Amino acid sequence: xxxxxxxxxxxxxxxxxxxxxxxxxxxxxxxxxxxxxxxxxxxxxxxxxxxxxxxxxxxxxxxxxxxxxxxxxxxxxxxxxxxxxxxxxxxxxxxxxxxxxxxxxxxxxxxxxxxxxxxxxxxxxxxxxxxxxxxxxxxxxxxxxxxxxxxxxxxxxxxxxxxxxxxxxxxxxxxxxxxxxxxxxxxxxxxxxxxxxxxxxxxxxxxxxxxxxxxxxxxxxxxxxxxxxxxxxxxxxxxxxxxxxxxxxxxxxxxxxxxxxxxxxxxxxxxxxxxxxxxxxxxxxx
Length: 286
Known about the structure:
The chain is an alpha/beta fold.
């Protein structure tokens, strides 16, 4: 029976890596039953790359994907990019036996300009072809802004239809936040996805304790900002339907992620998500 691999998006664990180091963080993931990670927002220093490799061997963990900016997130901003550090990033992929790279976000300064975004995607497509020569696939990760419409068409669809080599890492929370049916969108991207972010969507509890009803603007700020990032299975999304649609559409890796933890420890959140995914019938995907 066909199955995928459930893993963890390590953006959630950047604080733990700073506190414990890469190796001990991966040890804890192994104790929680996770054996697959997507590396994001972890500095890819020689030490960290070496510790990732050692932990993968010792704890039987697969690196599903690494993260790489195409160009700086803002002009002049430091950090590795595919344009400036191509050989180093390719070498990291080889060292960690990983053939998927993902772009996590558009550069911040072009998010309001369709033409600049499409020019960026054209560069990403060229980079996807260049990486393919090294056996590496490039994916683009969505948020909600890619669902702005131009002449009745989603920006994300314009990105997809103007490329053939670039893949898409679909994030189901941000799709829901955009008001789009995640299951239908996943089906529409069949053959262009290998990575899927499992991130639930919850309406939180309003906190009116600090609200002065003489200032209705503060009330409406609280009223309109109750959407939360939830542990998998603790929100409103049809996670089983999403996972099955992902599997049918070519997704291989299903990565648990939560952007905000609301005071909880990330390992506790990952335990909740893992327990719920096992209850849904995916114990053998870990």
